[in-house]
Amino acid sequence: METREFHTPDGVCLRYDWLPGPGRTTILVHGFLSSARLNWQDYGTAALLSAAGLTLAMPDLRGHGRSEAPQEADRYPPDVLARDLLALVAHLRQAPGSFDIAGYSLGARTVVRALTLGLRPRRVVLAGMGLTGIVDGWARSRWFQQALIDGPTARPGAPERLVARFQQMTGTDAVAAGHAIGSHVDTPLEALADIAAPTLVLAGRDDHDTGSIEALAAALPDAQALRIPGDHMNVISKPEFGRAIRDFLIA
């Protein structure tokens, strides 16, 4: 595996891990305050997919991980994360229908936005994301922005304090992360009907943070919902997580 980089049309340097294999390229998009390493590599998902023969591209989102983290709010216009994904696909020279893509939490929401902007993968995995987070996630995004500000001084055990602790643990830049999640754009329910790619909507049985995955699957033309053990924070560590993604993508 090697770390590569490319520059977006607005000049931001984004880095991604590249793990080549004999099979088609699969792009794995991590969640909020996380990174490619934490989300996909540390718990074995990348190794499992690689063993199945897939070629993996695992970006760190703008403001996260090893990618550049601009401090200026104007470097995070609406849908910037989705447009960064489109730029990555162009950089990788992936033709429509020739690659797969999977996203977790914020990564899943970013994948949906990229799909509405013209991304055309062969298959899609949306993990850790329900219908509410897709069509009405604006308030949740604003809550996370404020939690990054208030969290360090919040009472022990408060949700805001837990967000701040996770941000500190991952080393994510709080200012950049706040701008990044603030770039979220809700997707109209009717727009989901235009997402034609076969899709797996995946979440832990105890994950209800962003609404119903069953409702999200029902809103998509060709989707199935799957519940596995876990909740929103720990499902990526479960062996069933990687296996479900692998089994869907190699079908």
UniProtKB/TrEMBL annotation:
<protein>
    <submittedName>
        <fullName>Alpha/beta hydrolase</fullName>
    </submittedName>
</protein>
<dbReference type="InterPro" id="IPR050266">
    <property type="entry name" value="AB_hydrolase_sf"/>
</dbReference>
<dbReference type="Pfam" id="PF12697">
    <property type="entry name" value="Abhydrolase_6"/>
</dbReference>
<dbReference type="InterPro" id="IPR029058">
    <property type="entry name" value="AB_hydrolase_fold"/>
</dbReference>
<dbReference type="GO" id="GO:0016787">
    <property type="term" value="F:hydrolase activity"/>
</dbReference>
<feature type="domain" description="AB hydrolase-1">
    <location>
        <begin position="27"/>
        <end position="239"/>
    </location>
</feature>
<dbReference type="InterPro" id="IPR000073">
    <property type="entry name" value="AB_hydrolase_1"/>
</dbReference>
<keyword id="KW-0378">Hydrolase</keyword>
